[in-house]
Amino acid sequence: MKTLVTGSTGFLGSAVVRELLDDGREVKVLVRKGTDTANINGLDLEIAYGDLRDSDSLESALTDCDALFHTAAYYSLWDRDKHLIYDINVEGTRKILQAAQDKGLERIVYTSTVGCIGLNKDSTPANENTPFDPDTLSNDYKKSKYQAEQVALEFARGGLPVVIVNPSTPVGPRDIKPTPTGKIVLDFLNRDMPAYLDTGLNLIDVADCARGHILAEQKGVAGERYILGNQDMSLIEILITLEKITGLKAPRVKMPFWVALSAGWVCEMISNHITGKAPAVPLAGVRMARYFMYFDASKAVQKLGLPQNSVENALEQAVNWFKDHHYAPAEN
């Protein structure tokens, strides 16, 4: 029998695929035609072409599979077509979980996000039981992921053996797009970050996060959520760590939040009404930076055995991968 992975060409999904293959699993991946497959080229797997919006293609892809890792999502902090985010993230999740139920799959892992976890007002680390505040849903991506998680929980209550994982901020190699966090590393390497905001994230090595998915399949309780995270770091701590890794100077100027918010509004207006291209400063990203996204992953560590390898080493791997793949100057 095989394991189907959605989102396999992306940063986290490709890491999940590699962990499964390392375990000797037979892997099938769902790929949209025309998608860049650089992250999975050369791997020993089967490709099923399809789309999360097409139920027939999902049922076909799940044929002969007994497990599903649904890591795919439309991750965008800006898009003119807001409906696309919900069609893929919410309705696409509903369609593939329905197909998994119809096929009688034995185990399913749904990749949510810590954006669906509550936050503590004093910025102390939150856990799976922290009360959720809808006001933290600062953009359509986060709103869609919250709605999609509710879909997964609904299926779990109906008896589908789905475990939910909530990754924090994975870092490491093969961040091909890159993700917003990878963009921070890139902006640092390319000297495009003259100042920083007073915010913070919880980081985890992308390989550890992927291993957490496998452990959730093996040990997780259906219907429960597990934060896959490791180290809380303020943005300036991340930048100073990158300074240590690269020898490049981190910015020492702290930007007032209102300045970043104003820049986000201006860039958003230009994108929406003039260029039609993604804004240089995404307003959604600025709004997210208002919150310190600090999390306690002890449930996943204790119940699943989630690895906690060095975040600094993961950042160094990200730096080297970006340089090796010409995203940034090799001499930096």
The CATH topology annotation of the domain at 2-177 and 203-231 and 295-309 reads as Rossmann fold
Largest sheet: 7 strands, parallel
Beta-sheet strand percentage?
5-15%
Written as H for each helix and E for each strand, in order along the chain, the element string is EHEEHEHEHEEHEHEEHHHHH
Summed up, the helix count is: 11
Helix content: 40-55%
The whole-angstrom Rg is: 19 Å
Q: Provide the CATH architecture of the domain at 2-177 and 203-231 and 295-309.
A: 3-Layer(aba) Sandwich
Structural class: alpha/beta
Q: Can you tell me the CATH class of the domain at 2-177 and 203-231 and 295-309?
A: Alpha Beta
Low-confidence stretches: none
Q: Which helices and strands occur, and which strands form pairs?
A:
Layout: E1 2-6, H1 11-22, E2 27-31, E3 46-49, H2 55-61, E4 65-70, H3 82-103, E5 107-111, H4 140-157, E6 162-167, E7 169-171, H5 180-189, E8 200-205, H6 206-219, E9 225-228, E10 231-234, H7 235-246, H8 257-275, H9 283-288, H10 298-304, H11 311-324
Parallel strand pairs: 1-2, 1-4, 2-3, 4-5, 5-6, 6-9, 7-8
Antiparallel strand pairs: 8-10
